[in-house]
Amino acid sequence: MLQTAEDIRLLNEKISHAAGFTTRINDELSKVIVGQHGMIERLLIGLLSNGHVLLEGVPGLAKTLSIKSLAQAIHANFSRIQFTPDLLPADVIGTMIYNQSKNEFMVRKGPIFSNFILADEINRAPAKVQSALLEAMQERQVTIGDTTFKLDEPFLVLATQNPIEQEGTYPLPEAQVDRFMLKVVIDYPTKAEEQLIVRQNTLGLSFPPIFAVASTSEILAAKELVRQVYMDEKVENYILDIVFATRYPEKYNLPKLKPLIGVGGSPRASINLALASKAYAFLNKRGYVIPEDVRNICKDVLRHRIALTYEAEAENVNVEMIINEILRVVNVP
């Protein structure tokens, strides 16, 4: 535990130097991705804090391109799994196959054995397949037959779901959605950004190549540093107040929210909000967390962990409105 201002200053210098690779990654990705800075920032936060990211957005918003480009910029392995209703768990994690020439069963590893996994339209596959993926995310290992394999580090799952088509889908249960550190809602690009996208695609310009500007060893070292980012006890209590306000709003001068919230954030919400805030500080080349870091990442950590009641739906109240009200009322240190 850091005690002195000198300790924090030294850590600040160390992180400011170590976080240099994030600027190189952003510069490299900007060669092919127009806008979507928030999504890229959230991908890096998930990567640096050992979490996974659930992306919700309509098709065509560069979700696949972003994670593929990120994998290229870090010189890491990338796998894309298209989730469909006929997908089986073995199609994700792998299976045992019989080798006739050797007269024995052999392990054939699935696409989960990679550094970056894009689980495209995760809500299109049945629960058994979703569970196989989520187990690998949580345990960071896969068992095929009687052999357990550790997954490579770094390991980041980016799952996407389409919010506009719900027919023929298998929505993730709340308990499973909770496994994702962040749920990021992707919005449309601005008019100027979209104009640039149209020009690039209609003029037939080829995308410039993405070069590897960071190594996996840099990422692993950065993950260790993120854990060391200093968080004052006042900021810790601020995080706890925000999460506890989702459970007991009446204790935080928010009695109107009591009948609107069915289930509040779990302890996993507090842990992930603290880790994500540290990663956000790291991306800003700081060795300490400030309340603004917590506020900036709060919605992405909490929006999939708060279950609303039928009364909230009847009053057209959404999770974003609940979180905004909590952030407005809870005292900032």
Instruction: State the CATH topology of the largest domain.
Output: Rossmann fold
Gap from first CA to last CA: 20 Å
Gyration radius, in Å? 21 Å
- Work out the number of β strands: 11
CATH superfamily of the largest domain: P-loop containing nucleotide triphosphate hydrolases
What number is the mean pLDDT? Answer: 86
Helix-strand topology string: HHHEHEHEEEHEEEHEHHHEHHEHH
Helix content: 40-55%
- CATH top level of the largest domain is Alpha Beta
Tally of individual helices: 14
Query: Main sheet, how many strands, which sense, barrel?
Result: 5 strands, parallel
The best one-word shape is: globular
Q: What count of domains describes the coordinates?
A: 2
Please outline what is shown here.
The protein has 14 helices and 11 strands.
Q: What does this protein structure show overall?
A:
The strands form four sheets. A five-stranded parallel sheet has the order 2-5-8-1-9. It contains 14 helices and eleven strands. It folds into two domains: 5-87 and 115-216, P-loop containing nucleotide triphosphate hydrolases (Rossmann fold, 3-Layer(aba) Sandwich); 230-329, Magnesium chelatase subunit I, C-Terminal domain (Helicase, Ruva Protein, domain 3, Orthogonal Bundle), CATH 1.10.8. The mean pLDDT is 86. With 333 residues, it is α/β, with parallel strands linked by helices. Helix 9 (216-228) packs across helix 11 and helix 12 (291-302) packs antiparallel against helix 14 (319-329). The longest helix has 17 residues, at 267-283. Strand 3 and strand 4 (104-109) form a beta hairpin.
